[in-house]
Amino acid sequence: MLIDLAEERGGGQMDVRFGEPLKCHFPLFRGLKAFSFPTMGCIYMIMWFGAVGIALGYRFRLSCSAYILPYWYIFLLDKPSWNNHSYLFGLVGAMLLFTQANHYCALDKYLNPNLPSTVPYWNYFLIKFQFFILYMYAGLKKFSPEWLAGYAMSSLSHHWVLRPFCWFLSYEMVDLLIVHWFAAIFDFSIAFFMTCELTRVWATPFMLLFHLMNSRLFVIGMFPWVCLAQVPMFYGCDWPRKIARLNCKHLSFCIPRPEIEGKSRNAEYKKYSTKSSMDGKVPGNSSMHCLKLEKYQTGNMNLFQKCRALFILFYCCLQLFLPYSHFITQGYNNWTNGLYGYSWDMMVHSYETLEVQVKIVDNLNQQEHYMDPYAFTEYDRWTKYADMAKQYAQCIQKNLHRLYFKKSNAIPLKSLNISIYFDVWCSMNGRLMQRVFDPRVDLVTAEWSPLKRTAWSLPLLDEFKHIRPKLLTISNEVYNWNNATDVLFVADYPSLTLKNMLPPDIINTTLTILEGNVRYAEMEFNESYFLTAGKSVTISGGVEYRVTTVGLTPAIYMITYTNKTILEDILNVGDEDNAPRRPWLPLLQEFTARLENYKRFLQHMGNCVLYLMYGVPIPLQLREKHINLT
């Protein structure tokens, strides 16, 4: 987590995330706001010291609190940064707060030898249960027609990690059999194999290789390394003692001191004979002591132990229920169920965004203006979730009000009575490009509730998913024309209009209707055509064109084009041998980049402390953005 703070927690880009006064955040709870940049730097510093304390086992409760409270605050502050493993890190950090992990191989134990030398078994159970759920549910989520058909993670077979499989399988079969089928079976079964003592040793190499491959295939921060560090948890809980007694006998804080252990062994047996099985503090060296607890138990559970047992049971039931609780929080359901990040649906959905438009309408004179969609945020997950789209629209309105009162030249508004409309075109898992939100709805005044379905969030056009093989065939035909040609497949709802203008480098553009009826119009020439399935028309360059879906059913059409810039690059290609080649395993480059990022993180924290203590100005490297309305 010390590494994670600078990377996925955003410590290295702290100035970009919290140094801009107009930056939009997407908190889970209304009223949760970011502090000023210097204060946020100090919050990160508290979290950093907490992570150091946890790693060393020093003042463990205080360190856990110092880490986990800021962690959940930063986590809940920005929903677009959520992912499953960030949620996992927060859960494990919260669990550690209630454990006795500092009773062994920790500075607390070394400084206070009177601490018990064992960790209660329920501490192990909770963390193992959490990772068991992680693997099992990740597999269950993949046992869906969408994943098993091979549409979620395409083209991974070209990565060098999977190249050995291509020696005896085609690229398409590697994507299907290895990336999709094997991953689903592995995720679902590996936790069972690691839990069973007979199969654990055989499953461990697969577990290690799987996470090492993931660290190369995906940019997912510390997640593979956290899972690798957790692998020994599936083994007997006394394995560190066995290793310590063999190799670390000179480390007194690794092994309980003989004089203390010997004098107190009988007392410990008497002490634990009245404890509950949930405590599990049984001295000894065998892993069987972790399970055979009843031998030392004769008393009944007290009230505290009963409450603890009920809390553990409640937590386990909650973790089993949450990934399938989306029927309650329907406001967060869009093309997928719920907010991404707590359902263990890892890599199940992939998106391709074609276009994002943010339209500002001055209601006083009905003038339309367009702005950079990412003027106030670097995230793009708001383009796919209605709750975040609503939050972003409200944040844009608030920022435009601020700039209006500052008389900024970038804001040519005549009044503060504005409406904001989003038009987002996106594709999920190789489907057709379609709209995510209704572009006719003003999101400033639109209704949204966490418990009700969002009316202005357009549903996924699943009735057309059966034509994906046909689309793949057409795509391959277009790609064979030359390396500069491409094709775009679009589906649109009745009565909605696609407005666009071709950039100068796009040539030889043709619109072809696959299903349904549309009306095509070019505004400059004042011409319009009614097109049915099978009909085509050439799109003129440099002219605004409109495609309106006519009828009661959605229409499907494709746009083929040639990229003139790519075509010229192909014709003017030079000596390929002189082109720089990317290393296949860029470990040194990655380490250097991470080291530089960590230096920035430490500098940010130091600058914030100096500013708060002595008023030293903070150098900021802000993100380039374009707020001008056009």
TrEMBL record:
Keywords: Disulfide bond, Lyase, Membrane, Transmembrane, Transmembrane helix. One of its GO terms (molecular function) is gamma-glutamyl carboxylase activity. GO terms for cellular component: endomembrane system. It is found in: Endomembrane system. The chain crosses the membrane at residues 35-60, 81-101, 121-140, 176-196, 217-235. It comes from the Eukaryota. SMART domains: HTTM. Residues 1-239 form the HTTM-like domain. It is a multi-pass membrane protein. This is HTTM-like domain-containing protein. It comes from Glossina morsitans morsitans.
